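Our consortium's second objective concerns turning raw sequence data into structural hypotheses that experimental partners can test. To show how far this objective has progressed, the report includes one record in full. It was chosen at random from the queue rather than selected for favorable results. The single chain below, 949 residues long, was entered without modification.
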Amino acid sequence: MRHRLNDRAGSGGPSAEDVGDIEGIDADTGRKLLDDLLDEAVWLDHCPFVSASFGPAPAWLRHELVSAFQPLPVPPPASLHGTPGPRRVCVSFAPEHGPNARTWARTHGYRLLAPEAGVTAWAADKISVLELFEEAGVATPPCLVVPATGRAPAKAYWPDDWPGAVAQRRQNNLIGRGTVPLGSPAELERRLAAWPDEPVRLSRLAPGISLTVTACAGPDRTVVSAVSHQLVGLPELAASWGTHCGNQLVHPGDVPDGLYGQAREAARRVGEVLRGRGFRGVFGLDLVEEGGRLLAIEVNPRFQTVVSLVQTAERAAGLLPSLGLHILSFLLPALPTPVPGTLPPGPRRPSQLVVHAAEDTTVHGLAPTGRYRLDGRAASGPLTTPSDLAGLHDDEALCWTIARPGPVTAGQELALLQFEHTVGPLEPRPRLHPEALAWIASFHDRSRTEEDGASATGEAAPPLLRLPEAAMRTAGLHTLGLIIERFTTARAHPPLRVPSPEDLRAALDEPLPENGTDDLRPVLDRATRDALGEATRLDHPRSFAFTPSTGNFPAVLADALASAYLSVPGAWLVGAGPTQLELTTLGWLKALLGLPAEAGGLFVSGGSVANLTALAVARDHHLGDDFSRARLYCSTQAHPSIARAAHLLGLTRRHLSVVPADHTLRLDPAEVARRITDDRSAGLRPFAVVATLGTTGTGAVDPLDDLAGLCEREGLWLHIDGAHGAAAAATARGHGLRAALPRADSLTVDPHKWLFQPYEIGCVLLRRPELLPATFDLARHALDTGYLTPTDPRGDEVNLSDHGPQQSRALRALKLWLSLKAFGAGAFRQAIEHGMDLAEHAAALITDQPELRLVTPASLAVLTFRYHPADAPPGWDADAAQEHISRAVCAEGEALLLTTRVHGATVLRMCTINPSSTQDDVAYVLQQVVRHGRRSLSALRESTTPKGR
């Protein structure tokens, strides 16, 4: 049954239930205790309305502007009252939403009186709170939890007898975006698609009135205070369906018989469970009425806005306000015996409204905090009379400004309006009284925000291709959330994701957008869902294919910063700071790898361009302009980018001498020497040898010292392609590489491989970096010498655009610089060692498993192996079996394991450089290999067994 509840209590007068309808500590007793215990109590919040409603302010109580959602202010020393000590405490609104309150308390030496973060988060969680309600024996609307993964179709979760439902995300997000009403399974389907990868609480919609009970979990008991009518999702306040919009205090006689007592008893039970979990302090319990009984919805385990109203009722009943009760709950081993209180008779019921921003905008000015008087639609004030809710007249209101000048997002709280009377009927979603609507309109009239691209002060709209500041902040915060979600959900999705071109075209192809939008959130969500997320996840801890890049969070921030600053470390005139940062980072990289200080180079897009850059310098230095008879040597195991670089440098395949690898898959120096001799005898001009430090297939390392000696004797350029393996020189285990690396004329390093950077960042380093401008200097290639003459370097200025193929260059160095600053070189060394340890662990497991055979040993975190049981039947195709096993492992969605070819045979390959991968991950994948290998054998045996036997 749906009730229309009484609007005013005065029509019938107070009932017998009004006696003892509020509970608390006697005001005089409580204040004396606080006076004895405290020298100072600081209320930390974005607004002082709670400390102001405490009543006549005691000498020890003050407010400090510290919000969980704004930068922490640095107050001048003169603002501190006395010397911090054990009798000086501070109280916070929501410390679990950020570190500001704890930081402020620690900085100034105050004891923070706030609930413990763990139990607070547990109680605020919309899903774990169901456990709390069950333990308390408090009823809830029928509900279920839709899992984060492995979801059935939406209709499977929607009981046939539900007329409507409410979906809730687990987090308490303060502005209601995590609570959405639903009218059908189809709407649920869309909502689940919008909330992927997280559990969702789905409850039957209860249509009755919403109530909030304010209570305090003390050290020895729960004290239940006032009950209020919770106003939720009022469109007049620019609020979404689940957003808190205000409260109205109620008397027992305002609600149907028994509901007031039910509300208080439910709060007492919940408080006792919270108390048993170690929670202390004031909390709120939200309830909804259905069929004459109250059902629990959620817990607000923190001071809420309604406390300001509740304290007015407590003062009127001769009780200590809740703020004081909260403080005593932390300072005393037991609370004084609670006493009953009586709410004042008559029709007056304090209430309040929270005004929200209707859209993303910029606030230029809001009505100042204070007391106002309304005449028709216009409000005058602030008045000089005290800002005390208890003393307001019918035509007056208190306005507490919450937002600050600057950008605000849709749904953000702008101000709190408080009244000494109700603002609407006691209904589930009431229509506000005309005078309440007039107050809201008056508030907006006195406020100045951006409208239609211009502010009320006449400020110009943003220039073309520039979003308003508020929209940029909103999109930026949303993007940051998407990035963090990406980093914290590495195991949430299968590593292999290869959608069909048809599906991707259907999701992404669309006409050119002629008009844009300031709200980038849905666009960012779509790009993340339909494009970025539709790709193989190389950073998955069980992704052992290719050379998996993992990236890191500081590096992502660095890329964003570099893009925002349009950083171009090309000409010193344009990018002096970015250029020096790149040179500094190159110095760090040389130190990390043990290279001499006189080496130099630059960052490029990746190993392919690094190889191209090095070989271009080698060609020019050794061959000049005539390379018709050039000869370049590499192994069959060299990376394909070597052959591609030769092609781009004007060398045909006949100029490239590809030497077959030896039985260890390494380049044979003796064979290279023989070919050099033969080629010179044939009138050819050998100029360079490419050695590989970590082949992509097996991690093999060519004999670098022998090849260096050969090149020194023959007068050839030695280029080491260490795109993958050079990073090992940073570790103790790879220290032996340090003797050979300085002997190379050039070296390729790929930080987006084993230095854990996001794409793109490669590096080319030369023993004689002065040879780079000999090939790439702009003066050598300029067609119009005048345009860029002003950028010519002066003195010791460096133009990195003269050192490589790109004129306009991105600041790739910043990501490596910031990563090293954030984690330190030691962490990188440990992460590289971890990858090698994992590969050796995998090799040991393979050796111990009779059905597996190690093909190439662990080298630079790469190894290859085969499933090859001793009892394989005749006709078993081992190569096909490895391909089948790879496909089967990938198809299960838990790992990514691919194949390669070694000595003509198909093998399974693992690259274990991901710092997030564990020994358990390695063991799991090998177990799956054996399982699928056995299945393939069983299928083969069944297919070859004669029928009927």
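The partners drew two points from this record. The first strand starts at residue 22 and ends at 24. Residues 363 and 406 are 5 Å apart (CA to CA). Both points have been shared with the crystallography group to help prioritize constructs.
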